[in-house]
Amino acid sequence: MTAPVGHTARGRRLPSWPQWSGVLIAVAASLAALSLPGPARADTGTGYDQMTGVGLTASAVTVPWISGIRDDANNPIASANADRTSSSPTSPYSFMYADFKNLQVTVSQTQDIGHQGITVTWTGGQPTVGGGTVQANYLQMMECWGDATTGPNPDQCEYGSAGLLPGGGDVLNAKVGEREGDLCVAGAVPSTTNPPAAANGAGAQDGCDPGEPGSNAAQDTGCPGTFCAAGTFKIPFSPVSDPTNLDYAGATDTTWYSEFNTDEVQLALTNAQGHGQQQFETLTGVQAPGLGCGEAKSDKTPRGCWLVIVPRGTYEPNGYQVNVNNLSSFIDSSPLSAGNWAQRIQIHLAFAPQGSFCPPGTLERQTYGSQIVARAMQSWQLSLNQSANCSRVYGYSATFEATSTQNIEAGGGLAFTTIPIGSEAARDGLPPPTNLPTILYAPVAVAALDFGFNINEGTGYITTPIKLTPLLLTKALTQSYKQDLPDYLPGGDALNKGTTGPAWAQASPLNISEDQTFQALNPGVPANPAGPLDLLLTEDHSGPNQQIWRWIQASSAATTWLGGTADASDQNMAIDPDYKTLNLGQAPAIDSFPRAYSGVLNLCELAGSSPSPSPSPSASPTSSPACPAGQRQVQKHSLDLLPYTDNYDSASANLLSANNSSSGPWDPAGTAPDGSLGWWTKAGVEPIGSIWMWAASATPDLAGYGLIPAQLCNDAGTSCVSPSTASVTAAVTNATADSSGLLQVNPASPGTNAYPLTDIIYAAVPTNQSAAALTDYANLISYAVGNGQVPGSSAGDLPPGYLPLPSNLVTQAQSVVTQLQTLATASPSPSTSSSSSPSPSPSTSTSSSSSAQTQNTGTTPAGTTSAATTGATPTPTPAATPAPAPAAAATQPLAATSSLAKIPVTGSSSGQAVALSSPISLGGPVISLPQAQPAAGLTPRQAVGAFRYVLIGVAILGAGFAGGGTWLRSGGLLIWRRRRPL
User: Fold this and answer.
1) pLDDT at 914
2) Is residue 431 scored above 70 in pLDDT?
3) Could you say which of 175, 280, 378, 458 is the most buried, measured as most Cβ atoms within 10 Å of its Cβ?
4) Predicted pLDDT at 221
5) Read out DSSP for 704-746?
6) pLDDT recorded at residue 687
């Protein structure tokens, strides 16, 4: 087949063979090797695993295509499905039915949906065909709003983002990802023998739709016009907040969604057996305001939304059938057009409420602390706030450990923590806080840290856990692979000569996928010289981060390599010298992930056509003799190449959607961080066949989004363990109490078959609060360790990724509940002001008005350890000293971030928690009593590295307070990549 003549709307050009074999070969390889459904979870039946989230929930549904149009109770709508089951169908599109009649789709969860991943599996499909461009037989998925019981209209669906299909600018079947298409000639009807051509002169193979313009009034206006050419139609997007304000701009308008924050799936492939699987990201009204899912409707109930699945076979709506033996013949029409929309499966998703539905001024009991508890607290909030009938609500905000300490010092709220409050100061070599009130600790949850993966590189989706040794992880954390260095740019580009990086890195593999040890441990994962996106990390300083380094320090191979001995088994790979000076292999372990490499990349890029309206003088474009006229010099630092992600949730969400918000081509009209013109565009969502992403996260987020976990192995890789019910239980069983009585898992020796990165999360309640506050927090803890420990997906349940509390920890928590209730009934609290107002905002100062109770009975002197507590508390060691910033040159090029990016952002050193009080037996209450007042004037603080760390902390806290604990999706996360050289 040749390109049609006179195609005025869009010309198709045949790709050259180098294009087929180069740009699109990953797609062909994926199709050829697609023997397992993917991309994320391999469901082995109806069983459901609590720690991983694999399996079907109680609200799962299985929907055959023949009865695929469902109402808002997920019952078949008989009239809508009648033609599909008829022996003599009357629909003009019935010729398409044969491709779908055996299709059956299963959705793992349809009730109490939040921002998460749901597993969509299917059987009975026709195997996907395609040599380069995917030609036919696949599914397209989208999330839609629609308050009608009969389902949504096409204009209510989030679909049509550019850049989601494989092939970049050479996409041939681009219209399958759009909201528009060709109108047929007047009076046309579908025909499989003589398909009608388009009104704009395009051939029948372009798939005009005789059913357009559709019956929906929203589709009949606005075209032709500004946003579509004559002879075409365009389905506008109708946002829930203003349904009459129709958006025809589509991919050119990012007001409501774009390739960086959409959840649409434009290609979901079916294997040779007719099976497939897709992990679909569901968005709430927080992440997708145009849909409003979970937000309160006028009747105060949360808005449900719809998962719409449009199967694509071999026919276009006009009757044209794809010739699967011709690479230039393929499906190329929008799933929103009338004929394709008529083949849809629609499944209702009942969303959990988002935020509080109570009126302003409702009393809020603030909780805050470790982000690991976020999903559990969000679930418990929903049930508790509903049962209170707006007499009060529980809020939640993710905060850093030092911020939690400051809030406790100020005398308010409940903090979730994995370490004793205030003990984070020891990691910075600082004195413990001096004005803590009496604190009661109640265990409420058990979770773990792990590393999640989303890999689809040529051989299909990887569905088995990825094995990591301590040394492999250490190499990734220390910028020791070539592609993790900002000044590694082999080959260069049109404006810049190439550079191979520093001398010490010449023996290093390009990236972890090419590491010989990684390949030996993971033979099913192909090496990729283009480079995987580097490990996404959070920037916080925390006890859980320190756990990871303690696990690394337990490895002789890792500590030897950190000390400067090259890895003889892997091309004599050496450590980045800037990290060697940090002594990361020596105790005490640091509690963060530094970006310490000091090398930079100087680039010449086209300058903007005009300066920014008001750029800061120090950040204006810089002329340099090294750059020709019309270009400017910019620098990339480590923090530009490998910036941090906001939190575990955003890291996992970006993994699920393969959302690579990193650098794309240079745009002279783009706006740089300093306000000047000229910056790199974003790469967008990675297409099938080109996905290799991983991140450090927590099991609740990995399970919530359905990501592939890592197995942590010994040095030899012969013994590996994943977080599971059995391995996490074993770790908790072998945990020992610290000096405050809080259980801690020793990553160096977690126990036989135990998972080393397990955390027990405690609710820390200062007792100097009002009786009403103490009662409310007692009720929260009582619920959390009672009904809140029942695994499930309903409001109030224990979400996947958490281990139900062992009975001894439940007993311990119940004892704390009794103490709080006793304190509440005995007498008014010394301070009542903090109990009925939001907890203090994070700041660098601490309130001096909080009253600290001084109960000395049973206390243990600071820094000592009771005989009842196993292990000794090591002496705090000063933090590692950052390397000095490089000397300023005579003419400084424009830095891609602030000048602080030039200084290594190092984590603070710390040992185990400093003893804050006498230890208590595990069967009884856990109480942390205040220290005696030492020298005056010390304010607890936390080493934060770059100033942007403070800004992120404020943003996280502010978002949490404003949203009632709702996590914001990281749509604008900047991640510079090296897989596509500049």
Assistant:
1) 28
2) yes
3) 280
4) 52
5) HHTPBPEEEE-TTSSSEE---HHHHHHHHHT-EE-TTS-EE--
6) 74
